[in-house]
Each structure stands twice: as structure tokens, then as C-alpha cells.
Write a structure and sequence with these properties.
This protein is 44% helix and 14% strand. It has 857 residues and is of the alpha/beta class. Among the domains are: 98 residues, GMP Synthetase, Chain A, domain 3; 205 residues, no CATH class. A seven-stranded mixed sheet has the order 6-5-3-4-7-8-18. Helix 28 crosses helix 29. The chain is elongated, with a radius of gyration of 31 Å. The two termini are 48 Å apart. It holds the Pfam family AMP-binding.
């Protein structure tokens, strides 16, 4: 197939999988090394166990494990000129029953199943491989691929990735999956070697093999890419690694950029790819430069493939957007939905992908959505019409709607009053869609009709939503409990409640939909209770990925959350002189910078960063203004300067008005950094490598800190320009993914804090707090303590701004620690209560400023 060779028993033109181009290739299987010539001999010898294709081409079921035996059998089928139906090691019973094989693989060769001297099926001469479609909805729908499809796609991949005989890959993905199969084909065509490994790529053992066997390139999917970043795999000694590829689902632009930067520091490159089984594997591949400059793109069409945008589809409501339509030698012959379809030749000249996209002047493809007749649930593209047809065959008159969060099924009442009708339809729809029942919602009601006599699909969808919402009213309070049936709608409901919005887009992240440092703590705590431990970058992942990305729950909290709680305790008990451990507010300022870099400042455009900053300031200003107004009216403790957060400019720095200095400084730091990021040069630098923006900013910010301390007696904590460096250093830590970078940020903190206060203990407290922020990701705590820590961290702003007024509730009847402790506890309890009461209203007010500007269709 990959070279014009022939072998005994092979019809002319059928081709051999292992030809001249592949003879330099090698397989590494344990300690065994198999060169291309030996691999060709093994495939040819096994092919002899199949009938001569001149007597009729046979369908062979290949249970494609990542083993040498299965690989030889696959190559043997192609070498012999027959057709391989690729199957997982187990399962796929409906496909097997629909397309009975003449032969199936067994260890060491083939066994006849339906073959009785002549083939069971009439197979088209061009047909070579059958794969389950990415659009399969549980029915036996297959993609028909030709030898030319396989070769053309492999050629395009080799050219786009620059694979040569010096490269060595590893089998990180299943062969029955088109991405994994394309890795095999591309390496054979390039004459490269391949390590045959059956382990998971999200394990240390896998990466030990990568290091030991000199692997130069590894194929990633979103889950393995996230694991690689979380575990800092690229910081290990991987001397030969030069290339990472990523496909199989969407990574957020921030994740693409982070992975590309980590790869560049490793001395290798990242190339993002896009494709479908219907296009053999790859449609587009991004260059290494594209992953940094256009991380939201999926690349340019590979050699031999052309792409266009059909803007006439009704879902095309963005400028330049439409359905992505591709053509070329890689495009499948067509689908097979019945055994008779195996006799068909080419039935399509273009592939309508079902994806909405744009193509810019440079040919860069960007996926912006999907057409409504398909939904994609946990990576599986589901045809709603096919599910509806399957329900009809099962005896249900039903309307199927849905989105990427799940399916919704409205079932007409049956003749008998069957109270289990909705449950039965739900399970039937799940089977037809190939998904779990947990992502299917069903209700029984008469189907709504339009005036023209057609079913009102929007009305049916609304009826299911309403019915499910009513049924869940009594259990809504228990949704945060960990359960086996947690679904994307559950996760979206929790985050929507935290953000005070009615609905969220499951294909967008928490940050993209308004999440920030003010909402991060309650959101992460509630999600952990719902789905288990979250990945480090959960706030940047699409909501739908959080169900699968979480791991079994262990009691604990993020180190930053614990630090916020501890810092506010230090602040309260220091202010009442119960303990001598000042420095908590400066730790909070470092945490604020750390969070800002991970949330608002991580957004991809200047306008969105500005909106995120404005939303954060609204959330900070409202409780602060309320506290300042109350203090101004009741006790004259504060003034108008405090209400508008400008006391450092127009107020006093030595009386009670300086008590809110932290909030003044935090808002000023947010505004200054946002303004700097509005400058194109700085914005581009942040987009390429945020650490290289924030660390120099922190270093430069040390200048006013030292100048101010040298020329005046201004209190160190009283003005933003003497504390901006710690905010910027915290932001640098939020972007640091390596130990060296964390140490670089800590060096700035060390220089800034060493002589910051006359009290060395206070300076040491601040420094140790930032060290914990830098190096400790999570802290395990007794389960009973976790809710208290989360509450204190969530309410920390309210505790801080109201503490001095709440102190006054407890009279000072005697000197000593007891009254001080009572005053501190009063401030803590009062601040938490105020947060509980006010935060929902504050969240709704913040939402008056949308996360993104409204776009006109």
C-alpha cells in the first residue's frame, strides 16, 4: 500500500503495507528489534493463511490490540489484498453481528468464521479498511476507506510533521482508533521506528519507556496533555523527544499555549491537529509557530486536502463562519450502514464535517461550533435523527433534542399507563447514542405541534427541561454529593449557581464564563464534593471535561485556599493583639496576583481582560464601599476616600482610614496591570509567555518600593507602589510551571521582603507564605475541617473590610487575650455571615457587565 510492491497471492495493485519505503522501519517490542524487512516477511507469511483474493476478497475481523501479533495480522490482511474491519479487543457485538467476518484474528493467525469456500460479502475493489465512525450513534455505521485514502493521509501527515527515518514513535493510542492507526501508517511510510507499548500514556511507566527507548515523538489527546502538564513530565530527562502532537478533542487556547511553551523549554515542539475518521485521520495540522501565535486554530489543510466554508448553513451566525467542507484523496469512499454497502465505490466527493469553522487569509482553520443536527457528548458525535429513528423502531414516538451537555427525549404517552415509560425511553436512547443513561433526560408528554402540522422541536425541548427541573426540585440541595451518575449538566448547575447565571456553555471554561479569584474557592470546593479531585488547570478546561478529568476524592484543599484562610486568621488575631504574627495581608496580595494571572489576565484579548478586571473590581468595591459607608456614618472611622478606594492618594496614612489599605492597593494593582496588558507589545509578550511579562514587571516594581522607603517614612503597607512588586511576583508564580521559574519569582520576593519591615519575623512570615504558594499545590486535611477552611477563604474579603467594626461589638472589659480572641471570633463569624447574605446579590450585580460583549448575528 505504501509502495508499489506485490507478493505471491496478492492481486496486482492491491499493494503491500510494508514496501520499499517501510523496509528501513523497525518495531521495538520489549527487547526485540524488528526491522522493516523482517516485518514484511512476517506479514507475508501470515497472509499465506488467507485465501487468494482472486477467488474473492474476504472480510477479516481484526481485534486490534497493541501487540505484535495483532499488528502482523493487520498488515497480513492488507498484504493479502483482503479487507480489514478494525475492532477493539472486546465488545462491538452489534458491528460483528451486522457484518459477519469470513475470518477473524486469533493468536498466531486467522480462524475461519463465516467463510465456506467463498466470501460472505461482495467487497468493492477499492475497499481496504473499515473503521467505526466518529459520528456513530451506537448503530453499526462504518467508514469505508481505500488503500489510496490511507496512503494519501499518511503522506500528508509525514510532510506536515517532518517525520524521517531518524524518528521513533510509540503506540500511545489504540490502533482501532483512527488517530492511533495514523501514527502506525505515518511511521511506516517515513521509514521511522515505532515502540510497541500497551500501557497508558498517563502513567510514569510510559514516560520511562519514552526516555529509555529514545522516543522522538508522542501522540497526545486532551486528557493525556492535561496529565502531562499537571505532572510536569516535560521537566524530566527525555533526551530524544522532539515532537508532541495533539488531536482527539479541543484544548483551550491557554492550554495549547502552556503546552507549547513547556515543549519549547524541553527543546521540542507541539503541533495541534484536527481530523475525523471520515477523512482517514487528519484534515489539518498546525505548525509549531501556529501553536504559539494562533493557539485557537487547528492548523492548515494537509497536502492533498482542500477546505472551504459553506456559509449558507443556518447555524452560520458569525462573520466568515460556516460548515467546514473538505475534499481530497484522504476523504472516505462513504459510509456503510448495511452489508450491501460494502460493494459500493466512492459515494462522496466532499466531506461535510458538521463542524462550524472559519478559515483566515493564511489558511488557518478555527473551529467555532457544531451544526445542530449533531451533538458531541464526551467526545462522541451523536446524530440526533438516528437516535430518534432508533426510538421509533423500539416503539416510542419521540422527539430527541440536546446539546453537548446531553440528550433530551420527549416521549408521547403510550396506550397503557406505564410509569416506567420515560425510564425505558431514556435507556433506549442511551443505547442508540452509545452514551451512558446519566447524560440522557427523558419525559412523557403529548408531542407539541406547530400550525403546519409538524412537531414543535423547540417546544419539546422546553417540555423536557421543565419536567426534569420540576423532578429535581427536591434533590437540588443534594446535587453537591459525590455520585456515580454525575453529568455535565450537574457540573454546569453547580458552577452556574456560584456565578449566579442561569446557564453555562459546556464547551467553555469556568474562566471564559466569568470565573475569577472571588468565585474560584467556592466553585472548586463544590466541584470537588461533586466529582472528586480536580486537575490543576480545571478552571481553564471546558466544563464537559471536568466529569472525566476528576479523580477519586481525597479530603483536602488547594494550598492557595488554605493560605487565604490562614492569612485572614493571622490578620484578625494580630489586629486584636492575641498573637504577634503580622504579614497576612501581604500574603493575600501575593495570592491575589497568583489568581489574577490564572483567571482574568489569562484571557486571550485585551477587551476580555478589561472586562474581567472590571468585574473583579465590582466584586471587591461593593462590600468595601458598604463597610466604608457604615464606618463613615456610624463611627466616622472612614471617609469618602475609603468608599472610592483612593485613600492612598487623598487620605491619611496614619489614622484609621489606612485600615483598608489592602483593598486600595489590590484594585490599583489590577488596574495598572490591565493597563499595561492593553499595550500591544506587552499583550503579545503575555500571550507568548506570561511568565516573561510578570517576572520582569515584579523586578521593575522593586524600584519604587526601595525608593519610597529610602526617601520617606510612608508606612510600607499603605500605598500601592510599595507593594505592587509582591502582587506581580504572585502573578509570575501563577504562570511558573518549572522549579527554576518558581525560584526566580521567589528571588524577587526575597529581595523585596528582606528589609521590608523592621520586624524580621513579619518579613519571614510573608516569605514563608509565598514559598507555600509556590511549591505546595494541595494540602490534605481532616474532612471535617475542609468546609471551615473553604468558608473562611471564600469570606476573606468580607472579614477583612468589616473586621474593625465587628471588633467593636465586644467590649474591652479587661486586658489580655480573652477579649481579643472574642473580638477576632466575632469578626470571623460576622464576616462569614455577611458574605453568605451579600455574595449572591453582588454576583448578580457583577453579571450586569457581561463577560463578553454581545455580538450581533
Amino acid at each position: 500500500m505504501f509502495a508499489a510492491t506485490s507478493a505471491t497471492g496478492t492481486s496486482a495493485g492491491s499493494g503491500a503495507m510494508v514496501g520499499e519505503a517501510a523496509r528501513a522501519a523497525a518495531l521495538l517490542v520489549g527487547d526485540r528489534v524488528i526491522d522493516g524487512a523482517e516485518l514484511a516477511d512476517l506479514a507475508r507469511a501470515r497472509a499465506a493463511g488467507l485465501p487468494d483474493p482472486l477467488d474473492g476478497r474476504c472480510l477479516v475481523h481484526v481485534r486490534f490490540e497493541r501487540t505484535l501479533d495483532a499488528l502482523i495480522s493487520y498488515l497480513a490482511v492488507l498484504e493479502a489484498g483482503h479487507v480489514a474491519l478494525l475492532l477493539p479487543p472486546t465488545g462491538a457485538d452489534e458491528v460483528v453481528a451486522t457484518y459477519p467476518g469470513d475470518f477473524s484474528t486469533e493468536r498466531g493467525g486467522f480462524v475461519a468464521t463465516a467463510y465456506r469456500g467463498r466470501p460472505t460479502h461482495l467487497l468493492h475493489p477499492d475497499l481496504a479498511v473499515l473503521l467505526s465512525t466518529s459520528g456513530s450513534t451506537g448503530s453499526p455505521k462504518l467508514v469505508r476507506l481505500s488503500k489510496d485514502n490511507l496512503r494519501a493521509n499518511a503522506e500528508g501527515i509525514v510532510a506536515a510533521l517532518g517525520l524521517t527515518a531518524r524518528d521513533r514513535g510509540i503506540t500511545a493510542l489504540p490502533f482501532f482508533y483512527c488517530y492511533g492507526l495514523s501514527v502506525l501508517h505515518a511511521h511506516l511510510l517515513a521509514g521511522a521506528s515505532l515502540v510497541l507499548h500497551d500501557g497508558s500514556s498517563v502513567s510514569d511507566d510510559f514516560w520511562d519507556v519514552v526516555a529509555q527507548r529514545g522516543v522522538t515523538n508522542v501522540a497526545l489527546v486532551p486528557h493525556s496533555a492535561g496529565w502531562l502538564l499537571d505532572n510536569e513530565v516535560l521537566e524530566r530527562d527525555l533526551p530524544a523527544l522532539r515532537l508532541l502532537t495533539q488531536a482527539g478533542g479541543r484544548l483551550t487556547p491557554d492550554s495549547v499555549r502552556e503546552l507549547a511553551l513547556a515543549a519549547r523549554r524541553r527543546g521540542c515542539r507541539l503541533q495541534v491537529m484536527y481530523g475525523q475518521t471520515e477523512s482517514t485521520a487528519r484534515i489539518a495540522v498546525a505548525s509549531p509557530q501556529d501553536t504559539l501565535q494562533s493557539p485557537d486554530g487547528v492548523g492548515r489543510p494537509i497536502n492533498g486536502t482542500t477546505a472551504r466554508i459553506d456559509t449558507s448553513v443556518p447555524e452560520a451566525n458569525l462573520p466568515g463562519a460556516g460548515e467546514l467542507v473538505v475534499a481530497g484523496r484522504s476523504i472516505m469512499l462513504g459510509y456503510a450502514e448495511h452489508p450491501d454497502d460494502l460493494a459500493l465505490g466512492r459515494m462522496i466527493s466532499e466531506l461535510r464535517t458538521g463542524d462550524l469553522a472559519t478559515i483566515d487569509a493564511d489558511g488557518m482553520v478555527r473551529i467555532v461550533g457544531r451544526r445542530r443536527d449533531f451533538v458531541k457528548i464526551m467526545g462522541l458525535r451523536v446524530d440526533l435523527g438516528r437516535v430518534e429513528a432508533a426510538l421509533g423502531e423500539a416503539g416510542f414516538e419521540a422527539v430527541v433534542t440536546g446539546d453537548d451537555a446531553g440528550l433530551r427525549v420527549l416521549v408521547a404517552p403510550g396506550r397503557n399507563r406505564d410509569v416506567t415509560r420515560a425510564s425505558k425511553a431514556r435507556r433506549a436512547a442511551a443505547r442508540a447514542a452509545g452514551v451512558g443513561p446519566a447524560v440522557v433526560e427523558a419525559a412523557v408528554a403529548p408531542l407539541p405541534m406547530l400550525a403546519n402540522g409538524k412537531v414543535d422541536r423547540l417546544g419539546a425541548d422546553a417540555l423536557v427541561r421543565a419536567a426534569v427541573a420540576d423532578a429535581c426540585t427536591d434533590t437540588r440541595g443534594r446535587m453537591d454529593g459525590v455520585g456515580a451518575d454525575v453529568t455535565v449538566p450537574h457540573v454546569a448547575a453547580v458552577l452556574g449557581d456560584v456565578l449566579a447565571v442561569d446557564s453555562l456553555d459546556p464547551d467553555r471554561s469556568f474562566v471564559e464564563q466569568g470565573g475569577d479569584s472571588l468565585t474560584h474557592v467556592p466553585a472548586s470546593a463544590r466541584l470537588t464534593r461533586l466529582v472528586g479531585d480536580l486537575p490543576r488547570d480545571w478552571h481553564h478546561r471546558p466544563i464537559r471535561e471536568l466529569v472525566a478529568a476528576a479523580s477519586p476524592r481525597r479530603p483536602g484543599v488547594e494550598a492557595a485556599t488554605l493560605l487565604r484562610a490562614v492569612a485572614v486568621l493571622l490578620i484578625c488575631f494580630s489586629h486584636t493583639r492575641v498573637i504577634d504574627a503580622a504579614g497576612g495581608a501581604h500574603i493575600l496580595l501575593a495570592i491575589a496576583g497568583w489568581n489574577a494571572a490564572r483567571f482574568g489576565f489569562s484571557l486571550p484579548t485585551r477587551e476580555r481582560r478589561l472586562r474581567a478586571t472590571a468585574r473583579s473590581i465590582i466584586g471587591i468595591w461593593l462590600p468595601t464601599a458598604a463597610a466604608a459607608l457604615a464606618g463613615m456614618i456610624l463611627t466616622a472611622r472612614y471617609g469618602w476616600q475609603n468608599v472610592f478606594l483612593v485613600n492612598w492618594l487623598f487620605g491619611g496614612l496614619e489614622d484609621t482610614r489606612v485600615e483598608l489599605w489592602f483593598v486600595d492597593s489590590l484594585v490599583a494593582c489590577l488596574l495598572v496591570t490591565t493597563a499595561l496588558l492593553a499595550i500591544p507589545r506587552f499583550s503579545r509578550l503575555r500571550d507568548v509567555d506570561p511568565y516573561r511579562f510578570f517576572l520582569p514587571l515584579a523586578a521593575v516594581a522593586l524600584v519604587p518600593r526601595f525608593v519610597a522607603h529610602a526617601i520617606s517614612d510612608i508606612p510600607a503597607g499603605g500605598v500601592p507602589y510599595t507593594v505592587f512588586w509582591i502582587f506581580a511576583a504572585g502573578a509570575a508564580l501563577g504562570c511558573a510551571r518549572t522549579t527554576a521559574r518558581r525560584l526566580g519569582a521567589l528571588a524577587v520576593v526575597g529581595v523585596g521582603v528582606a528589609t521590608y519591615f523592621p520586624d524580621p519575623q513579619r518579613n519571614l512570615t510573608i516569605f514563608l507564605g509565598v514559598v507555600v504558594l509556590a511549591f505546595v499545590r494541595e494540602v490534605r486535611l481532616p474532612a471535617r475541617i475542609v468546609p471551615l477552611v473553604v468558608l473562611l477563604a471564600s469570606a476573606s474579603l468580607y472579614i477583612y473590610v468589616f473586621q474593625f467594626q465587628l471588633f467593636q461589638i465586644v467590649p474591652r472589659w479587661e486586658p489580655g487575650p480573652v477579649p481579643g480572641a472574642l473580638r477576632s471570633l466575632t469578626a470571623l463569624v460576622g464576616g462569614c455571615l455577611l458574605w453568605r447574605l451579600a455574595d449572591p446579590a453582588v454576583a448578580r450585580l457583577r453579571n450586569l457587565l457581561p463577560v463578553e460583549p454581545h455580538r450581533k448575528d
